[in-house]
Amino acid sequence: MHSVVERELELNLVLSPERSIPVPARLTYRTDDPYAVHIAFHIGSEHPVNWTFARELLVEGVFRPCGHGDVRVWPTKSDGRSVVLMALSSPDGDALLEAPAAQVSAWLERTLRVVPPGSEAERLGIDDGLAELLAVTPADDLYLRDPWPSDESSSDER
Predict the structure, then answer these.
(1) Residues near 65 by Cβ (< 8 Å), separated by ≥ 6?
(2) Closest Cα to residue 99, out of 6, 26, 45?
(3) Do residues 24 and 13 make contact, with C-beta atoms less than 8 angstroms apart?
(4) How far does CA 26 lie from the centroid of its chain?
(5) Quick check: 15 and 96 in contact, CB under 8 A?
(6) Average pLDDT, integer, range 57-75
(7) With contact defined as beta carbons under 8 Å apart, do 73 and 63 qualify?
(8) Is the pTM of the predicted complex or chain greater than 0.85?
(9) How far apart are CA 39 and CA 95, in angstroms?
(10) What is the 3-state secondary structure (H, E, C) of the chain?
(11) How confident is the model over 8-33, as pLDDT tens digits?
């Protein structure tokens, strides 16, 4: 059985140091994809803009700067409030988003209670899947049998 942990919140798209616009967003964590977090940004278009990246990156980014490349996350203060900044880069452009640290942290805590760090692989069932895939079946005898028996005669044929 899979669980989903969601949170609707309002982020700010930072346009300049003096100007930002609110962007409704949905944070989603699914136990069937335990290493990832999903963020859907509702920007007034027909379809939301979706981003997926490592949960570990967001967990670490609440406390200290982390990430490189397409996703970077770091904590800071804005107007006296604790916020988490997310810098997202894609071929379509770059965005700097500001999220309320308390709301992101509370949501992350819920995800960590559902799937504690280090137990993600158990949720994927990789070991069970590999065991099933590698299990010997009766048909395997056909493949494991030597198709060219040895030319050596057995001792009772001499």
Answers:
(1) 72, 73, 74, 75
(2) 26
(3) no
(4) 15
(5) no
(6) 96
(7) no
(8) no
(9) 13
(10) CCCEEEEEEEEEEEEECCEEEEEEEEEEEECCCCCEEEEEECCCCCCCEEEEEEHHHHHHHCCCCEEECCEEEEEEEECCEEEEEEEEEECCEEEEEEEEHHHHHHHHHHHHHHCCCCCHHHHHCHHHHHHHHHCCCCCHHHHHCCCCCCCCCCHHHC
(11) 999 999 999 899 999 999 999 999 99
Q: Which two tokens stand for residue 1?
A: 């059985």
By DSSP bridging, strand 4-16 and strand 49-54 are: unpaired
**Token couple for 103:** 């709301």
Structure tokens at 69: 């490349």
> Which tokens belong to 146?
């030597």
CA gap 76, 64 in Å, rounded: 9
